[in-house]
User: Fold this.
Amino acid sequence: MKKGGEPAPKARLLRAAAALLAESNGEPVSTRQITEAARVTAPTLYHHFGDKEGLFDAVVAEGFSEYLEAERSIPTSGQPVEDLRRHWDNHVRFGLDHAHLYTVMFGNIRPERRPTMVASAEAFLEEVLARAAAASRLVVSPHEAARSMLAANIGVTLMLIAEPAAKRNLELSAMTREAVISAVATDSESDPVTDTEGTPSVVVAAIALNAALQVSHPDQLSSSELKLFLEWLQRISSRSGS
Assistant:
């Protein structure tokens, strides 16, 4: 940051590009628009980012870096399902606090093209869900649960961003969060393997064992034996949706 509290040119370019992209409604954003909004010259943009597309890529990359840093900073509570709620709420809070940036990150989706960084966000959530699976709290696989939760989380956040701030109903987020969590997990602490609201106990046990073996790699099994065993567990786990 420059003296006097004004952001440096690179930071102003990133901020201006994110705001213009979010407000463009799909229309092209010109280099001139960006440089005027950032109060810099075109050569300054080229110096820092190479070209306009390089700047746009940097905007998205910085946004995801900040988002994942915030997600990873959330401490575990020792209660896997409660951790899911914390990550959901943090996602919504990040979106509302960085509305322009968030719409660039998660709102500019093209048909049949899944952004790599969205996949990275999903992979992190899958790590969190793997802990829930290992504790016998999931009734679907971590991968399936991660896709469902992230899709719903993004949809709710974009809807809240689109509403006037004074009229935002955060209960929408809480209601959707609980509906999604109840579809992929059980909050029961009495007997998580059998108390799963209709999900066969063998499926929950297989999901839990699968998650544990993915990270433990026991010495008692060879790599080929472990691979075959995991395939069997995956087949059992996938029956949760049948």
In short: Confidence is low (pLDDT under 50) at residues 190-200. The chain has eleven helices and no strands.
